[in-house]
Amino acid sequence: QENNLTAVTEFFILGFQVRQYVRIFLFCLFLMIYCGTICGNLLIIALVSTSKNLHTPMYFFISQLSISDILVISDIVPYMLHIILQNGGTITFIDCITQFYFLCVSEAFECLLLAVMSYDRYVAICNPLRYSSIMTSAHCVTLSVTCWLIEFSIFLIYIIQTAKLNFCGPNIMDYLYCDIVPLLELSCSDTYNFHLGIYLIGIPNILIPTTIIILSYTYIVLAILRISSSTGRQKAFSTCSSHLTVVSIFYGTMFIVYVIPTRRETVTMNKILSLLFTVFTPLVNPIIYSLRNKDIRKAVQGTFNKCVVWKGKNSGPFTDVS
């Protein structure tokens, strides 16, 4: 019986099975989104690193969010572009597990980071006099590194358990990348204990950050309501609006993709919804923080003005030559 089990060494990912002109359109679309996401998030990281007025805990955490977004989209999109262009493609078992690992780590890190950012907003609004002494640079770096280490460690155990699953055929994955749902569908192992492990790891990983976010914003709202002037209330709320928008998008897409039950016949819809988490969210995060944040807009304008002045100074001597 065991001899009849042939170990799967690679998977064939179908991608979107559509006409060639549609695939070319999708390839161009996702390539533009990928380039835009990388450029947008690198811009955020560069601005936070070089602009002195952005050397604050909030912007440090925003730059960490950009790093996470770059990791997510770079883990998924490059090979997905190959799959779309070739109308499917093979991926080795090791590469598939590795892709899934970095997807889990980066998304779970973002979950923890959003909780840390909500705590930062809580301290800034509810305890402003002690903010600088609590949210020091060393403390912010420690929080960020701890979040990365927690997720890399937890999901290493998770991935080892995934790698132990038996895959004995078929090896055709009707999806866009390696994720837990299509992997479990192809596994011929008893997945009861694995599902139990998912709940033991996944629920605390989502429940604890969600609780921190809810508690932080409960105290923030109560503090804002105690502010007498409407201008003060509006200013206090504006410091949280970008973060609240990102939290809503992140948890909204996660809920749609992983919590809402999907039917077997809506495979194409499952693929489209999965792109919300891996492609849409990393694209909109830098847009939200750029459009809704005056400091980042000023930093962009200041950098642009410096470039114009520098270009003018360097081109000046040549413009006078007749």
Shape: globular
Query: Which series of helices and strands comes N to C?
Result: EHHEHHHEHHHHH
Which structural category fits the helices and strands?
Answer: mainly alpha
Spatial arrangement of strands, main beta sheet: 2-1-3
Q: Oligomeric form of this entry?
A: single chain
How many individual β-strands? 3
Alpha-carbon distance between the two ends = 88 Å
Radius of gyration: 23 Å
Q: Estimate the strand proportion.
A: under 5%
Q: Describe the biggest sheet?
A: 3 strands, mixed
Poorly predicted ranges (pLDDT <50, ≥5 residues)? 1-5, 318-322
Write the topology of this structure.
Blueprint: E1 10-13, H1 20-50, H2 57-86, E2 89-92, H3 93-126, H4 131-134, H5 137-163, E3 172-173, H6 180-186, H7 192-225, H8 230-259, H9 267-291, H10 294-319
Helix pairs in contact: 1-2, 1-9, 2-3, 2-9, 3-5, 3-7, 3-8, 5-7, 8-9
